[in-house]
């Protein structure tokens, strides 16, 4: 077990991460705004939070993890109105898709998932506490705003200088320019055509920022161990959370802040105008595997900006194939009894290097490197006959430790891709799927097994023409056959 050291955005340095009550680590992560399908930048953040919670649990520390679902905000209201449906009907589709995508990427579910619309009373109560201190005030239209001039520490997370705050200058939008230091909306008065709630504050709906403060304190208390999210949320969202929460409670809101850096695509900021905007489903329909996407998005440590490229995605696919092939080789066994001491020592060193790397600010790159060094050494030992049965058992133990965090050894890719194709067909988007992908997945595993068995029999009877024809037919459908001394294996491209 190693102490987890993690960079704290608030303090600007690496600090020990541990639960303040020495029991469970209480963490909050900003969840999705369910107005559209999640893109790979969103999922990079959720994946690194998943890595963190897996590492914490691997250290034997229980986790109480809360994630919100923003199911009412400006974008949702605008999009639902354009679609001519109630916001609950509009958001249900994208919320369902979000959780399907989480599952496809192997992201563990938080212990608590809370919808904004289910916590309206909690938000109203928090705003009332702020109003009682004259920190929240009501504007002429009935909306309520947070008076940031009353919170001297405003800017302490984002390290922005807001000395020239103009008291009473307001901003109504949920998302606004990155340097605006203005009183922000806590509660928005009802507008024609918008869904609203009757409350003691008046008829209206919450602003975006208040929901996270209300949910975090409701489930985790007034002082929580860790808050995570993408770096784009640092200001204004997280800054506003701090101001609201600490003004109401008079206590520090969060001990440790974790922010995941932006993702670039082929060296450019991801945007629809650049033509480089990808959801998980876009990549699945192109024929890329969910496991390779997961492995790639966590390959670069969370505090480093990542450049997503399709070449690197292919490399990630190949890396997973190497890991899975090696894992199966160790499982199959057949090694002579005993233990090679040199390899046993190297296995212990790889285990230690892996553990230390993750405990050191979640250095996923170094953790991966330690495992691949072990794979290379063990394969060489197996090829030369020096790997023994006890070595294989030790190596499998390290692989299990690795997979408890990276979660890529079990092959669920074909089922996930089939689900993506079924979704595309239902949505009338099957034309976006790669034709060879459609052809490949039309072939079931049992169909492939039958052809592989027929090919094996054809080779035994020296019907090499038929054996070659089967190999070529499978290859055309994206199925690769590998003949080895351990037998015949196949895999989908």
Characterization of the model:
With 493 residues, the chain is α/β, with parallel strands linked by helices. The chain folds into three domains: 5-260, 3-Layer(aba) Sandwich (Rossmann fold); 268-406, Isoleucyl-tRNA Synthetase, Domain 1 (Orthogonal Bundle), CATH 1.10.730; 412-492, no CATH class. It is 47% helix and 16% strand. It contains 16 helices and 18 strands. It has helices spanning 40-58, 74-83, 87-104, 120-132, 210-220, 234-249, 280-285, 290-297, 310-332, 341-359, 364-384, 389-406, 413-426, 435-441, 445-460, 464-476; strands at residues 5-8, 13-16, 25-29, 63-69, 112-115, 136-138, 144-146, 170-171, 183-189, 197-199, 202-206, 224-230, 254-260, 263-265, 268-269, 306-308, 479-484, 487-492. Strands 6, 7, 8, 9, 10 and 11 form a six-stranded mixed sheet that branches. A five-stranded parallel sheet has the order 5-4-3-12-13, with helices on both faces. A three-stranded mixed sheet has the order 15-14-16. Strand 14 and strand 15 (268-269) form a beta hairpin. Helix 4 packs across helix 5, helix 4 crosses helix 6 and helix 10 packs antiparallel against helix 11 (364-384). The longest helix is centred in the middle third of the chain and has 23 residues, at 310-332. The chain starts with a strand and ends with a strand. Zn(2+) binds at residues 30, 212, 237, 241. Residues 353-416 form the Cysteinyl-tRNA synthetase class Ia DALR domain.
